[in-house]
Predict the structure.
Amino acid sequence: MKIQDLIKNIHKGSKHLGTFTLHELFQFASSRSFNGIAVAKENGKEYYLAFLAGEAEGAIYIDDKGTEYSDKAAKMISGTEQFEFYEITPDIVETIVMRCRIFEKTHLKKSIPSVIHDLLDNIVRGSKYVGIFTLHELFDVTSSHRSNGIAVAKVNERENYLAFIDGEAEGAIYIDDKGSLYSDKAVMMISGNEQFEFYDVKPDIVDAVVMGSRIFEKTHLKKSLPSLIPEIGKKSEGMGVLTLTLKRDSIPQNGLSVTIRSEGRIYGNDITTDEGTVSFKLAHGKYSCIVMDRSQNITTFYISFDVSHSKILLDLNAKNL
């Protein structure tokens, strides 16, 4: 049997788990490590995604001109489709994936940010503008008025969104040209130096945003606030510019998210350049350096910054101390 005939019929009789946008599908499948097939059909076009342990591992695209497999099929997905998801045993899914394995998963994940961006952009465009605030001011204003709404900060093609319900930050989304992050991982991309525009939004709409981006560790966000407030009477410490270079197998790694923390506070967050470097203006001291790659894998380094250690090379293959 041809693979396209197999996949067209294999989900029939299987348990239907729901209808999802591409973004919702990724969130749902990964939440419980589902195995199954997602199917979208529109205007004579058919899209199939095969999931193993919650990850999209295979793709097939069919239209009247023929069939595409693997990365070529993944590229045909715009992100606006509605997918029907069916639970199927992993051995059957694996059989399909053997013929249509996705190697460049960024093809899929890059289609999600544009859809999410457009959705959020439409929400704030139709909502009442309240004002522009620092992160500290934003928390004060929203909590004092028990506000429901969306806060947006945009800097150099990087977008941070915070969703507030009853004055509390409940959801977080981060978008850049590499992809998107949600929930606690999105919070880690907030340095505390951003300027947020806040919009009043209906609670039911904010609830819908929070469903796919809920913050579970709220201390990640609130611990960044004290670093924004000067400590009265504290003795001045040595300051300088810390430059980090991140490599793997001697190759500079660009596009990595780097967050600098100390004693629970976030002191900086940035993305590595093509040379694999990133710089922060900091007081001398000991810091945790949290590195997140494009696959959202996190590596933590512990560094000491002073005059003699202002340029530090971090090897992502090295075992962390």
